[in-house]
Design a protein that fits this description.
11% strand; 245 residues; elongated; five-stranded antiparallel sheet; 2 domains; single chain
């Protein structure tokens, strides 16, 4: 299929996206901010190439010779497509946020990201830190069309946090999420409130990760938002404990 510029309002209603596929593998990139940001791929979603193309409200072929790392080129192309979408009344606009809690989460995550990028003790900041924040943003984006996988992403985030906390404190990884929470509590690394938040994500995430399809229909976007809010809180606590010391 190669490279396309497409508009998928269910995934991002503010901009066209760069879509690249080879066989069953695919990635969606957002260049609108002036950065190459992979916002979704076949690894994060159970959607096929055909699903993505059928859901697109707009599609056009992209320059197959330009590498995906040519950010300025793709940013310019995306900008032109966005102008076309607006002129043709195809582009939907982001709904006004009626939920002050959801807006506060976004603001907190942006502030946390900004703090990390400016933090001068770079030896404490590993490469995955900013990706963790981007993954928290993705929880709701994925959850808008796939509740189960949105919540499963939250569980993968806390799995990393717990494993890293064990490593940082010289503890052997106990294996399961439950066991790692228990291990960190026994060594007084997790306060009670934080422990309960980790267990909350663990229990919700079990349904997504272990494919308990009989419970899947119970999920809705409210569940995804609550899970995202809790994950964001845990991430802030984690950075306060491991980076901003």
């Amino acid at each position: 299929m190669g490279k396309l510029l497409i508009y998928l309002p269910e995934i991002n209603n503010k901009t066209a996206l760069h879509f690249y596929s080879t066989g069953a593998s695919w990635k969606l990139r957002d260049y609108s901010s002036g950065e190459e940001n992979v916002i979704l791929s076949n690894r994060d979603s159970n959607k096929s190439v055909e699903d993505i193309l059928s859901e697109a409200k707009f599609k056009m072929k992209a320059d197959g010779n330009r590498p995906v790392t040519d950010i300025e080129f793709w940013k310019g192309k995306i900008k032109k497509v966005n102008i076309h979408l607006k002129n043709e009344k195809l582009m939907e606009f982001e709904r006004e946020c009626s939920d002050p809690i959801d807006l506060a989460i976004n603001n907190d995550l942006e502030a946390l990201k900004d703090s990390l990028e400016k933090f001068d003790q770079s030896e404490k900041l590993n490469d995955i830190s900013l990706k963790l924040i981007e993954d928290v943003f993705k929880i709701e984006k994925i959850g808008n069309y796939d509740f189960k996988n949105g919540i499963a992403l939250a569980r993968r985030i806390i799995e990393y946090l717990l494993t890293d906390l064990c490593d940082r404190n010289g503890l052997n990884n106990a294996g399961s999420v439950y066991e790692n929470i228990d291990l960190l509590c026994r060594h007084e690394i997790l306060p009670d409130k934080i422990k309960n938040y980790f267990h909350f994500i663990r229990k919700f995430g079990n349904i997504g990760v272990h494919n308990k399809s009989n419970y899947e229909s119970d999920f809705n976007i409210t569940d995804v938002i609550i899970v995202r809010m809790t994950t964001a809180y845990l991430l802030k606590w984690y950075f306060d404990k491991t980076v901003f010391l």
